[in-house]
Each structure stands twice: as C-alpha cells, then as structure tokens.
Amino acid sequence: MNISFASPKIADTGVLVVAVFQDEALPEATQDVDAVTKGALARAVAAASFQGKKAEILSILVPEGLKGVGQLLVLGLGKREELTQLALEEAGAKIAATLKCTKHTAGFVHIPTIGAKGLSDVQAVTAMANGCLLKSWTFDKYKTKQKPEEKCALKEMTFAASDPQAAEALFAQLKKITDAVFLTRTVVSEPPNVINPDTLAACAEELRSIGVTVEVFGEKELQKMGLNALLGVGYGSQYDSKLVVMQWNGGKKGEAPIAFVGKGVTFDTGGISIKPASNMDEMKDDMAGSGVVLGLMQALASRNAKVNVVGVMGIVENMPSGTAQRPGDIVKSLSGQTIEVLNTDAEGRLVLADALWYAQDRFKPQLMIDLATLTGAIVVALGHEYAGLFSNNEDLAQKLLAAGKTMGEPLWPMPLDPAYDKDIDSDIADVKNIGSGRGAGSSTAAQFLQRFVNDVPWAHLDIAGVTRDTQGKTFNHKGATGFGVRLLNHFIAQNYEQ
Ligand code: BES
Ligand code: ZN
Ligand code: ZN
Hints:
The protein has an eight-stranded mixed sheet, with helices on both faces. Strands 1-6-5-2-4-3 form a six-stranded mixed sheet, sandwiched between helices. Strands 11-12-16 form a three-stranded mixed sheet. It is elongated. Helices cover 35% and strands 20% of the residues. Helix 3 (85-99) crosses helix 4 (121-136), helix 9 packs across helix 15 (485-495) and helix 10 (348-363) packs parallel to helix 14 (441-450). The chain starts with a strand and ends with a helix. By secondary structure, the protein is an alpha/beta fold. One zinc ion binds at residues 268, 270, 345, 347.
C-alpha cells in the first residue's frame, strides 16, 4: 500500500474516512463533510447510536451529496485525552482492517486536527498512517489463483495533514521501522524449504548495503572456535550450521555495544526426540528470534541510530538422520561447560548457550538481550498476549517492560531463581538440557541460558507465543507478527541514543 499526505480537502473518489471523538460534537472536518451530505452523516451517526468510542466504525455506502465518493467511513477515536501514539496507530490499523475488502482502490483520511496530548497533529496523523501500513501487510506471494475479490483492492491511502511535507518527512522515518517489521515477518513466513541456514545467513549479508558489517561463520570455523553445543543441533541437517555476526556502529567510538542474540532454528523437527506430526509445520517459525535480530539491525542502520549494536544469529536446522545428535550425547560448549543432551528437541538453549557466550566474550557488551521461540511452556503460561521476560537486571527489565507497553508488544516478567538450578544439574556433566520434569519449563530453560551469560546485564525474551498470530490481532493478519522489532527499536531510541 502506498501512503501519502495532502492538504485537507473533501475527497471526490474512493473511500472517505472521517472521525468522531467520544463525548464531543462532530470535529470541524467531519462537520464540513456533514454539510456536503446535507446532514446525512449526522443523521446516520445518530441513527446508529454511534458514540465515537475507540475502534467503533460506521460505514455508509454511496453517501448522499459526496460526488464520486463510493464509501464514507466514520471512525471512532475514543476520548481525545486518551489518544497516545499507540492508540492512533491502532486507529490507523482499524481503517486498514475495515477497508481490506473494499472494492475501491483509493482512500482519503480526512482527520487533520487530532489534538492528542503531547503529540502535534502531524505526529498524530503519521502515527495513524503507520498503523494503517502495519496492518496492510500480507504474505500472499505463493497464491497464484487469487480471485480479484480476494485481493485487497486498496492501493493508495492519503492522509490529510496540516503540513503535508512535514508529515511525509516524519512518516518516512516511521516507515523505516515498519519496513524492518515486514522484513522479519517475511523471513518468518517463508517456508522452511526456502529459509534454511544458507538463505537466512544470505538475508543478513544483504544488510551490508546499508552499512552493517556482517560476518558469517560456517561449520569448519565454528568447530575450530569450539561452538560444539550449537553445532551438535545441526548434525542431522544437510545444511552447514552458521553463526552470523552483524555490527552497526552508529554510536561513540569505543563505547561498549548492546548485543542482541537470536535463536535461528530454520526448522525444528525435534531431531531424534522427534515432535508429533500435528502442527509440526509451525516449527518453521523457530528462527523468529534471529528474524527479529535481523529486522532490528535493518531498522537501526536504516534510520542511522546513534548507538553501537551487535546482532548475533545462531542458525541451524534440527533434523533427525543417521548423523543427528542422540539423546544422551554430551557436548563441550564454547564456555567450556559440558552439556548432557537428554532431549534433542530442547535445542534452542544449546544454540543460544554458544551464541550468548560468544557475544559476551568477544564484544564485552554493556548489556545483552536474546530472543527465542524457546518453550511451549511459555505459551501455556502467557498464551499469545505477552512474551516472557527473564532478566538478571532489574533496571534492564523495567526499561524493556516500559518499551513493550508503549509499542503494543507487551512483556510479562517471569522468574529466574537459583532454586531452578537443581532441576538442570546433570549427574554426569555440568548441566543437562531439560529440567527434571517438575514444571516451570520456561524458567528452567532461562536458568540454563543464564549459565552462559557470565554476569553481563542480560534479558531473555521467550517469544514462542507471540511470533505467530492465529486470529489477526491489531496490527497483524494470521501469520508472522514481527513481535520484538518495534519494542527493541524503541528501547534503544528511548534509552541509549540521548
Ligand atoms: N521450538 C520449540 C518451542 C516452541 C514450542 C516454540 C511451541 C513455539 C511453539 C523448542 O525447541 C522446544 O521444542 N521446546 C521443548 C522443550 C522440552 C523438550 C524441554 C518444549 O517446549 O516442549
Ligand atoms: Zn525443539
Ligand atoms: Zn525449537
């Protein structure tokens, strides 16, 4: 969808969108449209008992008096004083959701004066446009037989703005982050015969064109370096396992970087501890942690963020085969600690053990955040609403919680505790990769990771429940969400670029 800004006017084609605030008279722009319809708009609003509540929407087809306009949408914006950036993005998403099935190709949003607290009207209108864009994304490149009525006809959205040029400039900035979300959604949505360790690493290499330094280490190098925990997971795969290291140095020279580490299992069959057949296809999402790190690096580099950042992707495919790792194998991790692999399906923590150790050991980061579709147990605990947040540092946790709330990608704090350590102490090695079977599967997994972070301020985001949307919530359609990109971009902008 193409989004642009123009001076306020009453459109004469396609869909026209106007707003109503809760407990207020019709705003001026809406009144102007009402006048053209000779009061039909106001009568329709009254007849439908439309109160202008948040996300309330009224569609009037072939509105009287509005020459050329095929559809008039009245959008509820709720109470003016409650309009935040996020609420405005949600309002924009509501427009996109409502117009998904329209037959019109163009829309004009005539809401130039918003008066949200702490936001200029240009900021407010670009937020709405950004929400509209986020919601309009779909993944349909493999659909070759879509009927015209199944395709979204809407191609052009124009938003009225008091200063269209300023709005264009601000929107261009927001769009960089949204495009990065789309990159993440795309690599997560691509099927596992397209995204494999080779092609995922190649996606990272493309970021060189925007100034990101990218190193790709293959199996031979990783063997020499000693990342045996990561390598073990990939023994059953035809693909070479990889560690990808991306660097963006937009901050002060010599300042310790912030490190992001992503689980990048391009397909998780479970390995020899094989998963049941039903829904196994969903395990193509198991590289979403790496997908978010990739998208985040693109977001930061494309907006020239004033910060030093390292992005590490631990990339493997977890397959059963004659060369696959066995339950019972013991591997020596990069940290020197030995791991007894009792279940080959608890592979994410093996990949992260080496990737985390590598990141903290090489870069001495000021803090480190990993993202992983790590446990089914986090879905049991939090469903698809929150990602689990585990951290050894209260200040870091608070910053992440705040950023998640602001961006509509909420986190919920979960416990790390030395008490969980006894569940993962192995009888014959330093640690085992599954708990002793007394619940708290997400916490024992996180406690396992903590053994590989060496006291660096660290947070682990278990995104297993939020990576895939099954119903098409606020900014998504069914499928990949890109959860984490907006959150972490905001976390950096808010705390580390001042
Ligand atoms: N990739 C899965 C976790 C997962 C489950 C992600 C459901 C998304 C949805 C992970 O590698 C895994 O299989 N974890 C096991 C660990 C268990 C064997 C200790 C799990 O959660 O069942
Ligand atoms: Zn697994
Ligand atoms: Zn997995």
